[in-house]
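Run log, item B.
One chain of 345 residues. Sequence copied directly from the ordering sheet:
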Amino acid sequence: MLNKSFVGIFIVSLLISCKSEYKFILNTPKKIQSNKELTISISEKNDKPIDSVQFSIGSKKIKTNGNSATLKISDYRLGKHIITAIVFYENKTKKVTKPIYFMADTTPIVYTYKIINTYPHDKEAYTQGLEFHNGFLYEGTGRKGTSSIRKVALKTGKVLQQHNLSKEYFGEGITIFNNKLYQLTWQSGKGFVYNLETFEKEKDFKYTKSREGWGLTNDGEKLIKTDGTERIWFLNPETLVEEGYIEAYTNKQKVEKLNELEYINGKIYANIWQKNSILIVNPTSGKVEGVANLNSLKDKILQEQTLDDSDEVLNGIAYDKENNRIFVTGKHWSKLYEIELLIKD
């Protein structure tokens, strides 16, 4: 009889405890365009009283109005953010979190292109990175056993200088910064810095925050890299540490598999793996401001050679700042094109 009484008391106390437990709901949309006002609030499932609440996005606190807050998000980078609510109740506190996605405020501008000039390109080159510097093309090639960095004559496509990587490395994007050539590798978590004149390797560097090494460029202040996701990372050129990132988003979705990069007139131009297109990305917010469809450029190449549709796609963007020229090519393409991007009617 004593045991039954004990069990009964235990069950009653358990029910009382469960009934008195607070269950908070963080009310926020799953995604929102950056030109809209964001409203967030906290509520308790059974309408139990809340003393106060403190909201934040990431580490930035938000001014609250009772149990809710409204703010403009146009100054935030696009992509995934974490909304946090610290709830104060009955001399207790509880932390509640929820993800939210900030989207671009407009659809991307669609571009087409015009071919200005056509140049020969080594079709044995599995192009991973492309750069124009002082009248010459510099190219990084990939695949284990055939990865290299090269100096190439624009008009003839002739390889003037070449350094081959060890067979253990799969070469990726390159960029030239402060008279040094920087190169990524794919899955080794390692990059290389070379003397631009001799191609002699001066040092290695590691990237640990980003997933892999894909594309590489610079804005004159920082190195900019992709890792195969929607993220674009910014590296300190002295320490080569990843100091931050943006995420590429349209008004509807994130854009993943960002690959080869070029920095042109204050914007980041990016290839997408397995796509014959170029994105134009705002380097502050991550907004995809434009997209250039270059599928017909690959169709033009296919008139002269056979390509693997899943792999040998457009990959390589170089910019001649002095003459305002854009060059593009692809993996194993026999041609390199100077193009002009035009807004599609």
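Observations after the first pass:
- Residues 109-343 form a domain with the Neuraminidase fold (CATH 2.120.10.30).
- DSSP finds two helices and 28 strands in the chain.
Flagged for discussion on Thursday.
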